[in-house]
Specification:
5-stranded mixed β-sheet, D-Maltodextrin-Binding Protein, domain 2, alpha+beta, 38% helix, 3 domains, Arc Repressor Mutant, subunit A
């Protein structure tokens, strides 16, 4: 087993001297002095306990021990050189797999609109999207980036705004409201049939959040149905099962068409929308940098349009 003290740099220096047959040529290639290189080889020989090179005033040649070591080193160093060259070539090449975590809504609002242009511009790239509603540790899970609401992102992450502010909407079908008690304040919801949302990661039912004139309020509601997918909650509201609490852009088309009625509008102010988050600007993979550029370009061109619920 090779001693740990035999550094790769020292071994590479020995291999270069042995192959070139000259301390002078090897020192020039390494950008060091002949005396420093000679000292490196003597240090390596001392650590290994073997003389590796025969020297005289005219030439340098490996000893039997040196030749044995060189036979093992050469292919290994060649593989290392090839790997380093490949890394260097790939440094600016947009290729490989970009792994993202996003909610379904974030995928539809942020990722899907840029996919066609991104794929056309970077045919060697693969985009892998993991749909998940829990906040993911992208470093531990070996992800490149995530897309979540701005208020949910940890402070040690770099966050890029990729969508407009969002609002929640309390909605119900006209048929449901025709037989329900009036809903004039968020607390009135406790006497209504409501469609709940279960947060799987926290194993809890989401409390509906409201705010008006600086007053924040959480209301825990009850009702006949609970889902962990917003599109199912929307369909249940359309079917008249009760009151729903969804993102405004998910219900806007149905409100405009009269299929749903928006309630408590003044209790649902805007909040920070979708942000892409990642761990560091340094050593950013080219495929992630290209995707970030695509999102920025779309953001510059226009405010990111959010899809209606029918596209989910």
């Amino acid at each position: 087993m090779m001693p740990r003290s035999a550094s790769l740099d020292d071994l590479a220096a020995f291999a270069l001297v042995a192959r070139s047959g000259s301390f002078t040529r090897a020192a020039a290639a390494l950008g060091t002095s002949t005396s420093n290189l000679s000292h490196t080889i003597r240090r390596l020989e001392g650590r290994l306990g073997h003389r590796l090179l025969q020297r005289n005033s005219r030439s340098v040649a490996p000893t039997e021990a040196g030749a044995t070591l060189l036979a093992t080193l050469d292919p290994t160093l060649e593989r290392i050189d090839a790997a380093l060259m490949a890394l260097d070539q790939a440094r600016d090449q947009v290729s490989g797999t970009l792994r993202l975590t996003a909610t379904r809504q974030a995928y539809e609002a942020v990722v899907r609109p840029v996919l066609a242009d991104f794929a056309a511009a970077h045919p060697e790239a693969i985009v892998e999207v993991l749909i998940d509603y829990a906040y993911r540790d992208i470093i531990a899970d070996r992800l490149d980036a995530g897309i979540r609401l701005g208020e949910k992102i940890e402070r040690d992450m770099i966050a890029l705004r990729v969508g407009p502010d969002l609002r929640m909407a309390v909605v119900a079908s006209p048929g449901y409201l025709a037989q329900a008690a009036p809903i004039e304040h968020p607390r009135d919801l406790t006497r209504q049939r409501c469609i709940n949302y279960r947060m799987i990661s926290a194993d809890t039912i989401y409390a509906w959040e409201f705010e008006r004139d600086g007053q924040a309020l959480e209301v825990r509601v009850t009702g006949p149905l609970t889902f962990n997918e917003p599109e199912l909650m929307l369909q249940a509201a359309l079917d008249g099962f009760g009151v729903g609490y969804l993102l405004d852009h998910e219900v806007s088309a149905h409100v405009e068409a009269g299929r749903l009625v928006r309630l408590l509008n003044d209790w649902t102010p805007p909040f920070p929308g979708f942000h892409l988050y990642y761990s560091s600007r340094e050593q950013m993979r080219p495929v992630l940098r290209a995707f970030v550029d695509a999102l920025r370009e779309r953001r510059r061109a226009r405010e990111v349009p959010l899809p209606s619920s029918t596209t989910l």
